[in-house]
Amino acid sequence: MRPIILGICAAFFFAFTFILNRSMELAGGSWIWSASLRYFFMIPFLFIIVAARKNVTPLVKAMKQHPATWILWSFIGFGLFYAPLSFAAAYGRGWLIAGTWQVTIISGSLLAPLFYESVPTKNGFRKIRGKIPLRGLLFSMLILLGVLLLQLEQAKQLSIKYALLSVFPVLLASFAYPLGNRKMMQLCKGKLDVYQRVLGMTLASIPFWLLLSFYGVVTVGFPSGNQIFQSLLVAITSGVIATVLFFQATELVKDNMQQLAAVEATQSIEILFTLAGEMLVLHAPFPTTFSWVGISLVIIGMMLHSYVSRVKKLTFRRHLDL
């Protein structure tokens, strides 16, 4: 149950991304700086945490062993995740971006065959190729249905152009984030803790953010003071707190694709937190009765996803006791 709770807490802090990114766009800020500034600001906070735990040296050694691999999966897990999300904020409201992002629930499940998971036996554990958790995927579809209902009325007000420009980048991000995260967990093999891994991936993604920043200076100029401040808030809430919480949750269940999919499904709660945040900060309208039906489906899907995950874990333990 702990990984699920951590996932929900991460979803709360991740919601700041959608709210503040939309706020920056409405204030005239560029998505380029919304994306790159977050990762620049994350470095000192994460470095202080890792240094305080005296874990900088092991991280440096690990990154030196596979520098190209770190750069590749960090670019995918962080670069192809956050740049498209920030771009989408320029064309869609926070609730639409957060809602579309829930496709990651299914995306994460579909990635299972690319990885191996540990299966308990009487003689220990053995590795087998992951399978798409069909039952969990069914509950993921229920969550996604709830999200679609939640957005249906507002989505009718968008033009096709704006809908596509806010949807397709998020679809790309929904696959990139869990893929990069899982590949880095596979590479680290439990030798690095969550803080080290997040700092390492942030540092390894810096070449991409530098290139994007250079493009930003040439095309839109430097960011305003307001955008710098809001990007700092995103870096702390979403970049540091939420990312560490989510990575910690996935680390706890990294060898079980069913439970891993359940943890990733907790991110569906982001849509609820984002709706509340937009109502308070950006004065978004109160959800209709139809939208509350969608919210109910999201909550029910979350509970069922968590239940199935726990049942499977208990079944494994009973099997080992036989």
From TrEMBL:
Keyword Membrane: yes
InterPro entries listed in its UniProt record: EmrE
Listed transmembrane segments: 31-50, 70-89, 95-116, 136-152, 158-177, 198-222, 228-249, 290-308
Entry keyword set: Membrane, Transmembrane, Transmembrane helix
Protein name: Drug/metabolite transporter (DMT)-like permease
